[in-house]
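In practice, a research group might receive sequence data for several interacting partners and want a quick structural hypothesis before committing to experiments. The following worked case mirrors that situation: the sequences arrive first, and a predicted assembly follows.
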Amino acid sequence: MQLPRIFRTTPFRLTLLFLALFAAAASAFLAYIYIATAGEATRRTDREIQREMRSLTAAYDRAGLDAVNQSLIQRAASERPFLYLLMGRDGRRISGSIEESPVERFNGQPAWTTFQVSDLVGGRMVKHPARGLQERLGGGEILFVGADVGEDEAYVVNIVRALWGAGALVVVLGLAGGVLVSRNVSRSMASLSGVIEAVRGGDLAARAPVRGARDEFDELAAGVNEMLDRLERSMAGHRHAGDAIAHDLRSPLTRLRARLEAAYLDVEAGRGDPTQALAQALEDTDGVLKTFAAVLAIARLQAAGTAPDAVVFDLAELACDVAELYEPLCEDKGVEFGSELTRGLTVRANREFVAQALANILDNAVKYTPAGGAIMLRVRRRSSGEAEASVTDTGPGVPEADRARVVERFVRLENSRNEPGAGLGLSLVAAVAEAHAGRVELDEGPGKVDDLGPGLRVALVLPRAT
Amino acid sequence: MRILIVEDDLEAAEAMERGLSEAGFECVRAADGQAGLEASRAGVFNVMIVDRMMPRMDGVELVETLRREGNATPVLFLSALGEVGDRVTGLQAGADDYLVKPYAFVELIARVEALARRRETGSVQTLLRVGDLEMDLIGRTVRRQGQDIDLQPREFQLLEFLMRHAGQSVTRTMLLEKVWEYHFDPQTNVIDVHVSRLRSKIDKGFDKAMLQTVRGAGYRLEA
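A structural hypothesis for the assembly, expressed as tokens:
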């Protein structure tokens, strides 16, 4: 038989454990109370009986049997009378409030006994527990003094009952608390297991709710969600890479195949020189390989999530290096090149990837900036503390609506169709930024001046090395 | 010049051998790492071309073993793995150069030639001389026909590389890797611009153009 789910949860089991510990502690505590109260009541009664016995024997020793009888008569009128029985040497009753001694065998030594007395209450015989002491008097007579302990007993019973009640209360409250806590925890856990179940079923979009309580469950849920985000991005990256490769390589490969086939047919038919076609085919192949390498680099970066071989270096130094590579190109094209590099901004990154990202940004800038324009390379510290390397050009810019799109793979805007390039430049920059916990920002450049502009500002923002 | 080709892909190895033989190299082939190690112990080679992933003993292990045994033959690593980390591992193992598959044949020949020639110049040179062009590596000066040529630091490095490989074709990728130390492929041919600037400095005003463009390959500095 399986217990209901709630009883199998860890919090519930823990509750039970604590309950058991608590019950043990409570038992010890209650036992102490019991001994201290109920035991004390019995001892007090015994002391009172003893005192009474002593006072009566003293009266006997002083003035004989009559004095005892006198005392008994007086005391019978008191509020809480003792039970008395005065017997002769042979044990026969002389006087008293009970008929016969509850002490069954009496050898002359003081003897304690516990017995029951009957009392007529409201026409019904009620039995009370009682305690008594029997002693032989100096003259050989026997005196029994007892006390009804019914009230004490009732008091003890009440205490015991209260103790049981308290115990039950502890258990019930503990269980209820356990169920409550378990239910709460179970619910939080259930949403997480639900997410895991869904993901296992193939739904990568499933996310655990974060309740905003900022407790450990929220932390766990947030952690799981972040993990899933990353996983989903990585999966999407892979899928996208596949799509992109298929999409972008199919047409050049088709072209290449057609060219080779045509050349083959020409050679077979014995006409023409295939050298031209082969040279073209080689060039096509190089183009395909270049695209392939770029796509692969992006996909690997995206899949890895972090850049390999990260080292700490000065961003300005690297930017200066890359700028040096591109400066002559600008000059040749009649584009003015300037730079403002703030030194000392270190980042922890893969040098090669960041260099390539900067090269791609500069490459684009040179490509799209017409003669007479200008390109500005800046490395500066953002007010947020991050390091930023940006390139501003005076080219046609990118309309705001398209800015997010050009960072995606293979996107080249219509007006740039006739420029060379596979359209992977900015996507690689974005992948590099992402792998370094940074980002790419696209803004408008310096604005429209004559036939230049409005320009584009591409910024690679990286967290600084700590 | 003797080349040892250690490559498990038979077709690729044959193509390599044919191409290298045509370029004037004498080739020996080994089909896996173990065979490569034995061949390299048995003979003397100017350059070894080692595929990275092979059965029995992979390229990294082969090169590590060679270097441990004191064999300093220049090694060109071939690999389908093009990641930065892979190249670093390969070079750390003791390889001298690294080429990612698929490669252009001119690239392979140029690199093999560069490695083979490097062996020939044993002692440290302070002065490079190619034809009437002189480079003082300590004074950081360049003269042609006794005339001082003023070069930017990078142009100096570029010319130094070309002079060290005078008479050989060097590819654009080689220049980018060895002079700029970048291992990515710039979309625009920035190298051409740098080379043409250098050319204008060392060839302008002289009757003979030394810095030649090799069609389909790269550049060559001729005496």
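Before designing any experiment, note the following. The radius of gyration of chain B is 19 Å. Chain B has a mean pLDDT of 87.
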